[in-house]
Design a protein that fits this description.
heterodimer, A: 254 residues, Elongation Factor Tu (Ef-tu), domain 3, seven-stranded mixed β-sheet, 15% helix, B: alpha/beta, TIM Barrel, four-stranded antiparallel β-sheet, 9 helices, 16 strands
Chain lengths: 254, 303
């Protein structure tokens, strides 16, 4: 899949709450190239002195030629990005990385587990699963009700189960303690904090359910050239940006 | 039309713009973004005799206008390169140059010999300056004797163009350049990364698994430029300048300081198409200033 260096114009910037922004972009010229769920964009934040490298950000959704990114205000770069106003032009390298694996059992029920901003790639992937005739289940977790993002969008695609650490919405506790995990699923996909994904991987192994995780190791080039973002896998160090970010747990040393 | 061609030893470059080892993969990673044949040369990832897994993650830390890396020469070894990568890159219409590293002189020699047998690799860049490996690497590049010993041994077995990449982590880089010139190096390239360090104060931990790493990016440019200037005055062989070059103007500054050619490294991560923009920018500069050939600006600094 051809990678592009593209200028995109910010068409909408929805402040979901103080820590998150839903940003929608359209190419300044031409149309958006084909992009797959799980892939990411390397976003240039050119006007921040402390942000030298691009920021890898998951593709959250593609709707009518518009690219959606879900941005968490983590450091200076992402804070700057999230504060851009409509009409701003942002340079991105995209699409980068691999995609999720479609389940072979189309009659089964896939489960997509997201934590915090890790829910981002699961919306676009859930839509693809639904387009293939499956009914995905989303198990979404956050610290508090306020941190659960894009629920309307997820509800439009599949069944949504919620967890909050403080019990303000859904079941109280971590996603990995949720009662829905007792049910049978054909495939588990997860993205979120590493300890959460590792716990999900353990559960998937116990149930003998195939499982893919989306890693977000610190990255520089995004194209497999610098070898900075490596994950120590059963095949040795591999680049998360190029061979990932989606990995089957059987490849990981978790 | 200005003449952009450059000669380094027996190596003919269509223009002075090359890519720095470790920042451009094997070239193929950037083929979607630019026409690789527009480059003067591509210096591929550091290659060692045997497979190396490199250092543990985390290997990278962003710094003001730059980054630290501690990759540690991860590569699959020269035999894998020759069998699996060389066939994919040998027909790229530019100079494909292999960066060679080793833990001991014998490793450098064996690797250089293997690469000498590959027809379409017209040159090697001897890396005696990697700061991220425990043995070899920079250990050779920080003393005149060490640098001379590797170059002498490799020169005996390597008949094509031999470029030696120098470390900036020394007191007098010009004396090291002179030492490798005396042993028959065709060119020197400089600078490799500067040893640096980054700390996460909140966690009270180093940001790199190796604690220290190599600093690159725009922040190192003034240091690199100064060293290129010092070395260019000290040696007769052509100097290849690198260190933070992010624009055509940066490249021209290095050439004015005495570099016959330049390499672009970390800037490839920020703009994957930067190399061809630098080629165009150099041509535009030469035309605007009425130069007929790029060689006219090499060392043309007026002081």
């Amino acid at each position: 899949m051809k990678k592009h260096i593209l200028d995109l114009r910010l068409t909408e910037n929805v402040q979901l709450h103080s820590a998150y922004a839903l940003m929608k972009f359209r190419p300044v010229e031409g149309t958006l190239p084909e992009m797959l769920p799980g892939q990411f964009a390397e976003v240039r934040i050119s006007d921040s002195t402390s942000t030298y490298l691009r920021r890898p950000i998951s593709i959250h959704n593609v709707v009518d030629g518009e690219l959606w990114l879900l941005v968490r205000r983590a450091g200076e770069g992402t804070c700057k990005l999230a504060s851009y106003t409509v009409g701003s032009i942002v340079n991105m390298v995209l699409p980068l990385g691999n995609t999720f694996t479609m389940p072979t059992d189309r009659n089964g029920r896939p489960l997509l587990i997201g934590g915090g901003v890790g829910v981002a790639p699961l919306l676009y992937w859930g839509k693809q699963l639904a387009a293939q005739g499956m009914r995905p289940a989303f198990l979404l977790g956050a610290r508090s009700a306020n941190d659960l993002l894009q629920l309307d969008e997820f509800e439009a695609v599949g069944d949504v189960y919620l967890s909050t650490e403080d019990g303000t919405k859904g079941e109280k506790g971590f996603v990995t303690q949720h009662s829905v995990l007792a049910e049978e699923f054909s495939y588990i996909y997860t993205c979120g904090p590493k300890p959460m994904m590792q716990a999900v991987a353990r559960i998937a192994r116990e149930h003998n359910t195939p499982c893919e995780v989306s890693l977000e190791n610190l990255m520089a080039c995004g194209v497999g050239a610098c070898l900075c973002c490596v994950e120590d896998t059963v095949e040795g160090h591999v680049c998360v940006c190029k061979e990932g970010p989606i990995f089957n747990i059987d490849r990981l040393k978790w | 039309m200005v003449d952009l061609s450059v000669k380094i030893g027996n190596l003919e470059l269509k223009n002075p713009v090359m890519t720095a080892s470790g920042t451009f993969g094997y070239g193929l990673e950037f083929a979607d973004f630019i026409d690789l044949s527009r480059l003067g040369g591509i210096i591929v990832k550091g290659t060692t005799l045997n497979h190396r897994e490199g250092n543990l993650y985390p290997r990278m830390a962003e710094t003001p206008s730059g980054m630290l890396n501690a990759v540690g020469l991860q590569n699959k070894g020269v035999e894998y390169f020759a069998k699996h990568i060389y066939p994919q890159i040998k027909d790229i219409d530019t100079n494909m140059i292999v960066n060679v590293s080793g833990a001991c002189v014998e490793d450098y020699v064996a690797t250089a010999e293997r690469i000498a047998a590959l027809d379409k690799i017209p040159a090697i860049e001897l890396n005696i300056s990697c700061p991220n490996v425990k043995q070899g690497g920079m250990a050779f590049g920080t003393s005149c004797e060490g640098a001379a010993s590797v170059v002498k041994a490799v020169r005996r077995v390597y008949p094509k163009t031999l470029i030696v990449k120098l470390s900036p982590n020394v007191t007098d880089i010009a004396s090291i350049a002179c030492a490798v010139e005396a042993e028959g190096a065709d060119s020197v390239s400089l600078i490799n990364t500067l040893m640096g360090m980054s700390i996460d104060a909140e966690r009270r931990r180093p940001r790199l698994s190796t604690i220290t790493g190599g600093l690159s990016g725009a922040c190192v440019k003034p240091v690199a430029l100064r060293m290129v200037w010092q070395v260019a005055k000290a040696v007769k062989i052509p100097v290849i300048g690198l260190g933070g070059i992010s624009s055509a103007t940066d490249a021209i500054e290095f050439m004015l300081a005495g570099a016959s050619a330049i390499q672009i490294g970390t800037a490839n991560f920020i703009d994957p198409a930067i190399t061809v923009k630098v080629v165009d920018g150099i041509e535009e500069y030469l035309t605007r200033h009425g130069f007929k050939s790029v060689s006219e600006i090499v060392g043309a600094l007026e002081v």
